[in-house]
Amino acid sequence: MIVTRDVFHSEVRETDKESDSYIELSATLYMREEDMKKFDLGDGDVVEITSTANNNSLRVSVKNSNEAPPGKAMMVNSILVNQLVSIENLKRFKAKIKKVGGNVTRPEDIMAKFERK
Amino acid sequence: MICTGCACLCDDIELENGKVHNACIKGVALIKKAQNTHFTPVADGRKVDGEKAIDEAITKIQNSENFAIYGLDTVPLRAQQIAIDIAKKTEGYIDDASSLCMGVFVEEILLERIKSTTLEEVRDRADFTLYWGADPFNSHPRHISRFTYYPRGQFRQKGWEEDRYLAVVDIRESYTSKLAKKIIMVENDEEFIQSLIDVANGNTPSAYLRDAVELITRIKKSEFGVMFGGLGLRYGLSDIGLLKNLLDELNNLTEFYFIPMGCHPNMRGFNELLFASVGELNSYSFRDGIRDSTFSFSSLLTKEQIDTILIVGADPVASLPFEIASKIAKANVILLDPCPSYTSKIADVVIPTSVSGIGAGGEMIRIDGKKIKFEAHSLEEITDEYVLKRIEEAI
Q1: Which of A12, A27, B113, B367 could be stapled to B7 by a disulfide with Cβ–Cβ 3.0 to 4.6 Å?
Q2: Alpha-carbon distance B96 to B103, whole Å?
Q3: Separation of CA B307 from chain center
Q4: Interface contact flag, B329 A117, Cβ < 8 Å
Q5: pLDDT at position B38 over 80
Q6: Is the ipTM, as predicted for this complex, more than 0.90?
């Protein structure tokens, strides 16, 4: 998987990190159509991604995009994908995906895992 | 006015009756945020006034035994300098996002091991532009139109149609690559760098033969070339020396420069100030008097080595890997920021400050090293400089 930037995500990050647009753009896994077919995925399917870097998981919605690299998947840089990356490489990591259904992970799900001192 | 939405620091922004002219959507969002955000100071979970929040921050810093400052890439130079002075006074640690992104490139430029140039020179003279692991269409939306491909420069009056050649090296077809005359999709950045070096030396590369020959041929024909290196290149490189070798080879073919594609508006400013102060760019410990990767903010968090953190204009809870970000909440966190963020949700002390270029004037150093001055547009909020000066005087 690779991590990218998206100008519309940057826009909504400035204006409202709680908005549905921010969550939708953050919790989307972009893949090419031919790669989606390999995993029997369609637009809007919810998959669980598990990072092999740290074993953390996220649930995200799949979307067809020609901007995704062939044979790989892509997410926009956000608090969500940063669940899955390691400090050694913030841009690329390996992960497993499986179709699960249900709701996508939201930023508040991540924040709930923060343990205060 | 100046837009501090990204490292382009666009200087042609106009604000008229609440409407923003000329800015990209990132810039408009930043300026609108500055106008519309109502953010309340907080100290230990209680809403307080700004001065009380600053007093509480001072107390926490005074009681700290292992203190760190992080962020600073979005605030003016004077605020950055005061933060460096605070770190020095407290014998604390100081770091910014460059330790995770463009610092490795900026260091080579400041040490004059890589030739760099200004964006104005690129606009006026460049006939070959290469974005490598960068997608300015999304990260720096006006970079291509103001400086690299579309403008009519002094010696490039025929613009992109005839005078300029744009190439993109990336792992994917980005929006930027769709504008380019040549896209080269690479899996392994170092392998492609080596291929370019081989072709430049007249040797046959072991991979990417056709693309490497085409690119080198094009560079040979150019008079002024520039490579913009983004995070894709940064994380595709294990050895900066390989990139330096390539740039040396390209300079044997033509006049060729490198500019990092940093995103933060004043990251270079922080790097230059710390460099002028202690000879290092980031990850510095004033207690030990040295820079070391173990003093990077992420390393300090990993080892749970800090008890109090002053975060200025950054949201590391969102931007760092979770395993590291989650450690932030175990320290006392003092946050200076213009708007609510994920870090503000866990901070002990939150001090809302103005957006640079709107509520705060000053100077920043653009990613190409050019100093940009700007005035405050409104003076209704307290600035980072004011808060940091209060802290610096008190400790």
Answers
A1: B367
A2: 9
A3: 27
A4: yes
A5: no
A6: yes
